[in-house]
Amino acid sequence: MTNSEFDPQIITINDSLFDDINESDTQNDILKIIEEIKKSSGIENLTYAMLSSIPQQSKAPPLITTYNENWQELYLSKGFLKDDPTVNRLFESALPFEWSKIVCRTPREQHVMDLSREYGVGESGLTIPLRGLRGELGILTITGPNAFNPPLKSCYARTFSQVGLYLHEWHARKAGLRSEQDIPRLSAREKDCLALCAAGLMAQRISEKLGISEAAIRLYLSSARTKLRSQTTCGAVAKAIRLGII
């Protein structure tokens, strides 16, 4: 199954899989969930990594990946992290980006990209920057047989931003980076707006239901996104659910 067979407006991931991520104990548990996500979304590979804020680091970050073992071993043994253009671009962009838009700046970067294709990583890729509650930088990359062009890009970016946030927080908890103080304090209105978004309501319907203006709804959602360190409302909803805020 390829991503060309999916209607970009209806790509969905079973909500139970997000709960499964939260309840997972081991990386093997997570990999089993990722395999289910791959089947339902048409992607070929998914990789998540927690990164430090120093792009020049050569030490490999903890990885959760479906890439083949030969590529994983080569990537880590050769220290490709510092020459990976998808990682280097991450420190320059806060938004998801397609690999087709990347311009390799050095022969080493081009070498890494060429080798990745030789090792079957995927013809096309989409990389999504992630930020944790304490500002930890993470990366989620998906690959597939076809280009992630509009409208596929926006659909996959929206869906997998949620996947990335769940994996990011799961990893942070396992690493001992979370405490009660990390849970943002949202106002009652911010919680109401997020909860109604989670139920599928748009701004106009939320406005009618709460009896306040659409401008106020947008303001509350913007504030909630800021507090939850999420670029999108979908991501904020996912994080709020994961943290038990709504």
From TrEMBL:
Ranges of residues in domain HTH luxR-type: 179-244
Highest rank taxon of the organism: Bacteria
Keywords per UniProt: DNA-binding, Transcription, Transcription regulation
One annotated GO molecular function: DNA binding
InterPro entries named in the record: Sig_transdc_resp-reg_C-effctor, TF_LuxR_autoind-bd_dom, TF_LuxR_autoind-bd_dom_sf, Tscrpt_reg_LuxR_C, WH-like_DNA-bd_sf
Listed GO biological process terms: regulation of DNA-templated transcription
Species the sequence originates in: Acetobacter cerevisiae
Listed name of the protein: HTH luxR-type domain-containing protein
Species classification: Bacteria, Pseudomonadati, Pseudomonadota, Alphaproteobacteria, Acetobacterales
